[in-house]
Every structure is written in structure tokens, then in C-alpha cells.
Amino acid sequence: MITRADGARRAELAENLAGLRAQIAAACLAAGRDPAEVTLIAVTKTFPASDVALLADLGVTDIGENRDAEAAGKAAECAALGLSLRWHFIGQLQVNKAASVVSYAYMVHSVDRFRLITALGRRATAAGREVRCLVQLNLAGDLAPAAADAASGAGQGGRGGAPAAEAAGLADAIAAEPGLLLRGVMTVAPLGEDPVPAFSRLREASAQLRARHPQATVISAGMSADLAQAISQGATHVRIGTALLGGRRAFVR
């Protein structure tokens, strides 16, 4: 049962949130941007629905998850509480999970192959929903989309993403697919490297995409360790877990 009475945890989250808001404001000031341009997505993977409820009380209603096995139940639990949330699916997504994900997702950040577009569109249409989608780009070139789809570990931590050269084709396919709404691009910075070059390439890809699809204004980039660099390169959505919720907990099915 979810309780909102955990005062100590609420105070911890409130303190972390205040610090995070200050970081975002400072990064925006340095970049000459308005903090209102940046949406904070709280990545709550491995954390309980009670934390989501506390975050909602604190005004954070964009929630990110990367495993359907965890997210579906958590979304249902929060819906039963009457919480008004926008769920962002940010992890690698297997085609056979499309029906589940479209049942609760406001936006899917990790669309990186044509087969997934077809599956999401078909399932969203059947459910009478419209799901916002981002083209995920792998700007390090470390995992091809076909490999992501075939790998047995897809959705279990693979980073995925399509080559930049495929961005236009994927975007066109999303825009043409009933049940889906093209909204922009996403990337994860290469591990162990300066994130700025990747974020800069994402910004360029976003500009090229907007020339064809003006509604595709979202740039999803930046996590706890690199949010300032992402904001400097135009990120409109940052995906924050550790800096807000603390160290990850073990996820038990």
C-alpha cells in the first residue's frame, strides 16, 4: 500500500529537487536560456510508486521508466491513486512489449527501428491512443538498430539508438504512422567520453528534423552527470534519476 506519510523521504526528495532546480537554472543562465524551456523527467526505475506519489506532491509529474516489467505495474498503482502523471518510456523496447507500453506511456523516447514504429502504431491505434515518439540516435555508433532488435538483452540495459543517417527516414515513418505523434530526438551520451560532441550532433540532427517536421521540437538529452552540458546544447528534456532519488535499488520482479 502506498502512503504519503513518509515525511523523512519527502524532505529528502524536496531537498534534492531544490538542488536540481538550482543546477538547471544555473545551466540555463550560462547558456542564455529560460529554465522554463527545460522539462525535468524524474527517472524512478527501481524506486517504489510511493516515491512517485511524493514527487507528484512536490510538483514533478513527468516520470521516466526504462523497463516495462516495472513501469506497467507502477503506472497502474499510481493511476489507482488518481495521480495525474506523464509517463516517459526511455529504455530499449522490445516489439512484444509495445501493447503494454502504449497503455500508459505519454511519450516513448527510444524509437530506433521501423519494426518498432509499426508495432507501436498498431497497438496505439487499437487502444484508441496517440503516443508521442522520439527518434533515439546512437551518436557513438556502438549499437546498430538491427542488433538492438535481435539481442536477447534488448530492453535490459542495451543503449540502442539508430545511426544519424537514419533519423529522417525514421521520423517520416513515425509521422506517417496512425496512433503516433513525432515529437523530436533523443540520445544517451557515450560512456567515458566528453558528452558535448554527442549533444552537439543531436542538436544538429534536431534542426534538420524540424526543417521537415516543425512539430518535432523535443531534444531529450542529459542525465544526472551531464545535464549542464545537455542544456548548453539545447536539451528541452533532461532525464534525472540519481541526483533526485539517490542511489539505485535492486529491482525485484
In DSSP terms (H or I, runs of 4 or more residues), the helix count works out at 10
CATH architecture: Alpha-Beta Barrel
Structure summary, number of beta strands? 8
Alpha-carbon Rg, integer: 17 Å
Provide the structure class: alpha/beta
Named CATH topology: TIM Barrel
Largest sheet report: 8 strands, parallel
Number of domains: 1
Low-confidence stretches: 142-157
Strand order in space, largest sheet? 7-6-5-4-3-2-1-8
Average pLDDT for all residues:
91
Share of helical residues: 40-55%
Instruction: Please give the alpha-carbon distance between the first and last residues.
Output: 17 Å
State the order of secondary-structure elements, H for helix, E for strand.
HEHEHEHEHEHHEHEHEH
Percentage of residues in strands: 15-25%
By CATH reckoning, the class would read: Alpha Beta
The general outline is globular
CATH superfamily: Alanine racemase
How would you characterize this protein structure?
This protein is an alpha/beta fold. The protein has a single domain (7-245), classed as Alanine racemase (TIM Barrel, Alpha-Beta Barrel), CATH 3.20.20.10. The protein contains ten helices and eight strands. It has helices at 7-31, 49-57, 68-80, 98-102, 114-126, 145-150, 167-176, 195-212, 227-232, 242-245; strands spanning 39-43, 62-65, 86-89, 105-111, 131-136, 180-186, 218-220, 237-240. Strands 7-6-5-4-3-2-1-8 form an eight-stranded parallel β-sheet. Helix 4 (98-102) links the parallel strand 3 and strand 4 (105-111). Helix 2 crosses helix 3. Residues 142-157 have low confidence and may be disordered.
